[in-house]
Amino acid sequence: MKHEIGTLGRRVDLNLLVIFDAVYQARSLTEAGIRLGLSQPAISHALGRLRHVFGDPLFLRTPRGVAPTQVADQVAPRVAEGLSIIRSSFEPPRFDPATSTRLFTIGMADIGEVVQLPLLMKALRNAPGIRLRTIALPPTQARAALADGQVDLALSNFPVKAPLHEEILGKPGYATIVRRDHPTLRSRITLAAFRRARHLLVRPAGAGVRHGEVIEKALRAIDATIAIQVGHFFPVGAILAKTDLVATVPLGIAKSMARLVPLGIFRPPIKLPVTHLSLVWHERYHGDPGNQWLREIFVRETRPLYEQGP
To answer: pTM for the complete prediction?
Structure first.
């Protein structure tokens, strides 16, 4: 047979191939018509057009229906494969966390790695093939990374507008922390004592979270002394444990640090603006089953952190 698939593809109506496949499978024009909801004359007309294209009868009548010719036998597997590919392309994408080995990239600062990531990893125990990667990005880079697909999700409090979506996790409060045996700050912190103290400021550049900017502005407004500024939350507990410094950080990170280092946690004696923390994703992943699955887990596991407030 000399028929080239590419040439046939330009001459054959896709519906004719569907009819061919149904007749080939059923070995009956009547049965094929029932399956497709078409009359037998319509099936016969379609086969007539295909016979003209292929230059072959394709099906011969028998007492029980029809039998395929050699040409039909040769064409049928390729027709079936092609139709399967076309049909599958219109099926909703599937995602099975139990078998998937997908890599998800999440934009978050080290505060997220300390507070949210352990909860997320615990929840992923039934998805052993799922892999996570975190990356810290400032707001403008986070938006661009979400848009071009470099990042699947981002933790952030930057303003969100289309084509980005967000799920607000909560409104994280702040806490002031010191070492538990601090010589002057033990039961509570007054504004005067807070102003006199030497402060440790954390200014992380990650995924649009601006806690450092908020706290620095408040400290400078009361003329407090910023003795040291660091770019990550990881060293804060160790530094406080060895000094009389004071740090004001998000409540979630304060509680996490206090589980590792003996710290006293207090309500800050200064007014700090209320901010929200959101899980953000791009429109391109809004309907993606894998992204939806991870979003649901992230929200379920981390939202309780912020429901009680400071």
So the answer is: 0.63
